[in-house]
Amino acid sequence: MKASRGPKTPILTALPAVTNADDGLEINYLADAANGIVWRLRYRAFQADGVTPNPSAYKWEYIGGPPLRFANGTQSNGTAAEAAGWTNLGGGSVTVPLAGDYLDRHGAQLGVAGGALSQTAYIGAAIGDTTPPAQATALFAADAHTTTGGTAWASAATTYLWTGLAAGNVIKLRYLAAGTATNSFWVNKWLELTPVRVG
Question: Given 4.10.800.10, 3.40.50.720, 3.30.1360.10, 2.60.120.40, which CATH number is that of 68-198?
Answer without folding.
Answer: 2.60.120.40
